[in-house]
UniProtKB/TrEMBL annotation:
Residues 20-86, 104-170, 191-259, 276-346, 363-433, 450-518 form the S1 motif domain. Coiled coil: none annotated. It comes from Pseudosulfitobacter pseudonitzschiae. Pfam families: S1. This is 30S ribosomal protein S1. InterPro entries: NA-bd_OB-fold (IPR012340), Ribos_protein_bS1-like (IPR050437), Ribosomal_bS1 (IPR000110), Ribosomal_protein_S1-like (IPR035104), S1_domain (IPR003029). SUPFAM superfamilies: Nucleic acid-binding proteins. GO terms for cellular component: cytosolic small ribosomal subunit. Gene3D superfamilies: Nucleic acid-binding proteins (2.40.50.140).
Length: 553
């Protein structure tokens, strides 16, 4: 009895493990996919053997193995302990991971599932979240090869209370890559020629793998000629030779060049393209201010919009030339320091104003279409795609310019005479009224002031009469119809009457003749007095006129 009492007291003194703690146990059997584990204290429990397997691997468990399990419940309805290997591994893993997080050390794990925004990672019992952006240094399209593969991760964030762990694979790769880059960059020197493989192509260039480190080959350093897109001369996976142009030790950025390994065509530009020489080139690019023309690969020149056409002054270059068009240009200027060539397109064609001046001297009659009507005249289209201007004063002999211009419409075909060509100012003056000659000049060519001519009455008006001389109209006012006031009556004349008049004025500017009957009569009287007598001879005016009439007889 004493021994039994002692054993009973000893059993009461033994600490029963607390629920929710990790205890050690021994596998005593495996049956029906479960491991039967003796956790001591006369307690046994069952655990699915799959809880002893790592992701993607077979379970490693056998009778006699000692394992740690999590005691969830001391005894269930069947009198067995409720235990979990997975929860024990989780508690163990959290302790280990918290220490790794505190020491900023790497942990090993395996990606085993995909979730929204990333993947799940088994860290030896604890499940962590791997964001999609933290899988690799570049976006990963297919994560299949990474599944179930044990690899290192960096813990970015963890919260045991909430059970959250965030890890990164990218941080490990970047660290490893940085070490590799530093090693490769340490073996490179500026000006060195190396071989690389094109890994990626963008609009501004290509990334070239130099054996663990990438360098940027900018599009402007691919060739001496203009390259619109890197894909024109490169393809992904292609092996190329490049020259190291610049190495930034701080950022580990490497600038590469291909054209530096080729001969610079600009070394021979001055000799091959002397000033004012003409060459054939290809239009490579068109802008608002001009067009770029390739003379040879790597040598381009600019044809400024002002040098494109003699006649098209305010049009976009794209309306004169087109991309890839072959054109003939003239070299106007070369700046080797700035690698610029100024070219001219219009200089390869003759100045149309010079050609017009040679083929249409002053006085030549031309025909053209009215292109525009302004307040000061007409613009008429001429051969050579140029315009000539007819000033208001050159529209008509008989009408004021402001009135005559109303007779014309845009698109009318008109005849005109070339009156002046100014090649330097690119101006051509035309005259419509000059067609057929100067009628006024022809009519009054032999007439001068004081001449007596015969005119024909064409109209009777209250203020005088209208007369015509050689097609030129003139008007005799009432006061000039006679010396005698009683005879200054327009109605005493009839249309068609022939009347002798004296020319009082020849106005070439207004194209008018001034005529007078009164002036003719006074002149005749004066002439008679001088010929047949004087005022102090005692002869009367009637005597003098009678003598004059006898003389006429």
């Amino acid at each position: 009895m004493e021994e039994f009492e002692a054993l009973l007291n000893e059993s009461f003194e033994m600490d029963t493990p607390e629920e929710g703690s990790v205890v050690k146990g021994k596998v005593i059997a495996i049956e029906a996919g479960q491991a039967i584990i003796d956790v001591g204290y006369k307690m046994e429990g069952r655990v699915d053997i799959k809880e002893f397997a790592d992701p993607g691997e077979q379970p490693k468990i056998a009778p006699g193995d000692e394992v740690e399990v999590f005691l969830r419940q001391v005894e269930n309805a069947r009198g067995e302990a409720v235990i979990s290997r997975e929860m024990a591994r989780r508690e163990e893993a959290w302790d280990r991971l918290e220490k790794a997080y505190a020491d900023d050390t790497r942990v090993e794990g395996a990606i085993f599932g995909r979730v929204k925004g990333g993947f799940t990672v088994d860290l030896g019992g604890a499940v962590a979240f791997l964001p999609g952006s933290q899988v690799d240094v570049r976006p990963v399209r297919d994560a299949g090869p990474l599944m179930g593969l044990k690899q290192p991760f960096q813990i970015l964030k963890m919260d045991r209370r909430r059970g959250n762990i965030v890890v990164s694979r990218r941080a490990i790769l970047e660290e490893s890559r940085a070490e590799q880059r530093a090693e490769v960059i340490g073996n490179l020197t500026e000006g060195q020629t190396v071989e690389g493989v094109v890994k990626n192509i963008t609009e501004y260039g290509a990334f070239v793998d130099l054996g663990g480190v990438d360098g940027l080959l900018h599009v402007t350093d691919m060739a001496w000629r203009r390259v619109n897109h890197p894909s024109e001369i490169l393809s992904i996976g292609e092996s190329i030779n490049v020259q190291v142009i610049k190495i930034n030790k701080d950022t580990h950025r490497i600038s590469l060049g291909m054209k530096q390994l080729q001969e610079d065509p600009w070394d021979l530009v001055a000799a091959k393209y002397p000033l004012e020489s003409a060459h054939t080139g290809r239009v490579t690019n068109i802008t608002d201010y001009g067009a770029f023309v390739e003379l040879e690969p790597g040598v381009e020149g600019l044809v400024h919009v002002s040098e494109m056409s003699w006649t098209k002054k305010n049009v976009h270059p794209g309306k004169i030339v087109s991309t890839s068009q072959e054109v003939e240009v003239m070299v106007l200027e070369i700046d080797s320091a700035k690698r610029r060539v100024s070219l001219g397109l219009k200089q390869t064609m003759r100045n149309p104003w010079e050609v017009f001046a040679e083929t249409h001297p002053e006085g030549t009659e031309v025909e053209g279409e009215v292109k525009n009507i302004t307040e000061f005249g007409l613009f008429v289209g001429l051969p050579g795609d140029i315009d000539g201007m007819v000033h208001l004063s050159d529209l008509s002999w008989d009408e004021r310019g402001e009135d005559a211009i109303q007779n014309y419409r845009k698109g009318d075909m008109v005849q005109a005479v070339v009156s002046e060509v100014d090649v330097e100012k690119e101006r051509i003056s035309l005259s419509i009224k000059g067609v057929g000659g100067d009628k006024f000049a022809e009519a009054v060519g032999g007439v001068k002031r004081g001449s007596i001519v015969t005119v024909t009455v064409t109209a009777i008006e209250e203020g005088g009469i209208e007369v015509e001389y050689e097609g030129m109209k003139s008007f005799i006012r009432r006061s000039d119809l006679s010396r005698d006031r009683a005879e200054q009556r327009p109605e005493r004349f009839s249309v068609g009457d022939k009347v002798d008049v004296r020319i009082t004025n020849v106005d070439n500017k207004s194209r008018r003749l001034g005529v007078s009957i009164k002036a003719r009569e006074i002149a005749e009287e004066k002439e008679a007095v001088e010929q047949y007598g004087s005022s102090d001879s005692g002869a009367s005016l009637g005597d003098i006129l009678g003598a004059a009439l006898k003389g006429d007889d």
